[in-house]
Design goal:
The chain is of the alpha/beta class and 551 residues long. It has 17 helices and 22 strands. The structure holds alpha-D-glucopyranose (GLC) and calcium ion. Calcium ion binds next to loops. It comes from Demequina activiva.
Length: 551
């Protein structure tokens, strides 16, 4: 694979890191993270090996859904800084070789957005048709409430004009009418604006709902909704050739595939929700079966498109694609208490606490993340093993401030933390025990391990570019895959069980006598290389939750 080609399709080899400016670093002591704070922490991301930053919404917002309720698409929320601060951050990131993408939340706006205030003001307002209004909720409209704890309908009666508006999410998030050409033009203008300021693309929020047309034109499909995604994508690449759309599409694979379009003319990356959910089932059972099954059945994304793989994100750990009994298994293993659970379908926890703080097991999971075919996406704090604070309500439990150093404000802020809305977790998981400062110079720390995985991942193009074969294995707890690029092999082996095992794996593509060494164990005390036997198998011993990348 030519390095120049790798650079062109940069998202295939990227290490993505997502964060909310609000919880990353406060620079002025008001207790709210801001762009100046983020700028001062770009070197942490560079050191970690991050190549692409995904910023969660930072636009002006009443903040009733953590910024996913936008009141102005062309500005920075004043609590987070100014456009000038944003540009300084962009410039700093670029100087460290880090691209930036941001959330594009255009399925809906805040009900405080001036567009909606106009639209709601009268039936003949020029912006009336920017949202989806009906006298009565239609029978043939979209179905399925997303936040059943708070909403029981997708339609909300609005007194101003005595009509109902569509809201896929919370009632304060009215859906834009994307079948309206004026709305489409405006969305393109928003994308163009931020690309001019340097963004390399977007994480597109709630994609299936965005292009849903049921209920928007009396239930009649006005056109192929995918044509709209294609139009967005081609607009974007006309403006900036290497910009990407990373889509949030939580559907089974067969429903997901159409969103890639014909090889990148719709989404360039799509989160692998089914694979992620299968991984948690596998972890809960200590059985690689569900993952192997999901990943071998997982279709290959067309041409230059990729799966985006992840362990956790800012939302609840959604398990909605598992069966009820499978979900119960994961709940029993990783979130048995009602306070761990949310919406009957997910867990409001981060990984380390779900795994009981087991370092071997946590590291094995990240080794998996970085070796699976797909582009790894980290959620801030994962690099140091941050956990949730269950005292913080709802989905905010996993959105507590970044823990930079010991002390009350954790290096995040100098503001008084008593009564903070999103307090950091208490000991033994608070900043006095888990922080960047504590881990950055420690060769044994999780942070050092993750930085090493990121570096190795980038030096090992096999996982990002190679052809992948899932290897048969008699040991149910072991997942093994063989990645080949330009005739060169890496075999990744992960053991999901808590007792050591010996396994024999068929490596048909390798010549007998070939010596494989473990990239993860390089350095002093490195184990002996593994030799491919005459029958083209390798035999190795794996410790509890063991992982190796054999090259
Ligand atoms: C996405 C976001 C979630 C938000 C929702 C509504 O699912 O990940 O946090 O609440 O969209 O915008
Ligand atoms: Ca601040």
């Amino acid at each position: 694979m030519r390095p120049a080609d790798q650079a062109d399709v940069w998202w295939r080899n990227a290490i993505v890191y997502s964060l909310d400016v609000e919880t990353f670093q406060d620079s002025n002591g008001d207790g709210i993270g801001d762009f100046r704070g983020l700028t001062s922490r770009i070197d942490h991301l560079a050191r970690l090996g991050v190549t692409c930053l995904w910023l969660m919404p930072f636009y002006p917002t009443p903040n009733r859904d953590d910024g996913y309720d936008i009141a102005d698409y062309y500005a920075v929320d004043p609590r987070l800084g100014t456009l000038g601060d944003f540009v300084e951050m962009m410039r700093t990131a670029r100087s460290r070789g880090i691209r930036v993408i941001a959330d594009l939340v255009v399925n809906h706006t805040s009900d405080q957005h001036p567009w909606f205030l106009e639209s709601a003001s009268s039936r003949d307002n020029p912006k009336r048709d920017w949202y989806v209004w009906r006298d009565e909720p239609p029978q043939d409209g979209p179905q399925g409430v997303i936040f059943p704890d708070q909403e029981d309908s997708l339609w909300r009666h609005d007194e101003r004009t005595g009509a109902h508006y569509l809201h896929r999410f919370y009632r304060h998030q009215p859906d834009l009418n994307i079948t309206n050409p004026e709305v489409r033009d405006e969305i393109a203008r928003v994308m163009g604006f931020w690309m001019e300021l340097g963004l390399s693309g977007f994480r597109v929020d709630a994609v299936p709902y965005l292009i849903e047309t049921a209920g928007t034109h009396d239930g009649h499909l006005v056109e192929d909704p995918h044509a709209y995604l294609r139009a967005l994508s081609s607009f974007m690449t006309r403006r900036k050739g290497d910009a990407i759309m990373l889509g949030e599409v939580n559907l089974p694979y067969e429903g997901l595939m159409p969103f890639f379009g014909d090889g990148g003319d719709e989404l360039d990356l799509s989160f692998d929700f089914p694979g992620m959910q299968a991984m948690y089932l596998s972890l809960a059972r200590q059985d690689a079966g569900p993952m192997r099954q999901a990943l071998s059945a997982r279709p290959s994304p067309p041409r230059d498109t990729r799966w985006a793989t992840f362990v956790r994100n800012h939302d609840e750990l959604t398990l909605d694609q598992l069966t009820a009994s499978q979900r119960d298994e994961v709940f029993a293993a990783f979130g048995p208490e009602p306070e761990h659970q949310i919406f009957d379908r997910g867990l409001r926890r981060r990984l380390p606490s779900m795994l009981g703080g087991d370092q071997d097991r946590i590291r094995m999971v990240y080794s998996l993340l970085f070796s699976l075919p797909g582009t790894p996406v980290l959620y801030y704090g994962e690099e140091i093993g941050m956990v949730e604070n269950l005292e913080v309500p709802g989905r905010w439990s996993v959105r507590t401030p970044m823990q930079w150093e010991p002390g009350a404000g954790g290096g995040f802020t100098t503001a008084d933390q008593d009564g903070a809305e999103r307090a950091m977790p208490a000991r033994p998981y608070g900043p006095d025990h888990i922080s960047v400062a504590d881990q950055r110079e420690d060769p044994q720390s999780l942070m050092t391990y993750i930085a090493r995985l990121a570096a190795l991942r980038r030096e090992t193009p096999h996982f990002g570019w190679g052809s992948i074969e899932w290897l048969a294995c008699d040991e149910p707890s072991v997942l093994a895959h063989h990645a080949v690029v330009d005739g060169d092999s890496v075999v990744a082996v992960h053991h999901l069980g808590d007792a050591p095992v010996e396994v024999t794996l068929p490596v048909a593509g390798l010549e007998p006598g070939t010596l494989l060494r473990d990239l993860l164990a390089e350095g002093p005390g490195m184990p002996e290389p593994v030799e491919v036997a005459h029958d083209r198998t390798i035999t190795l011993t794996l410790g509890r939750y063991g992982a190796c990348w054999l090259r």
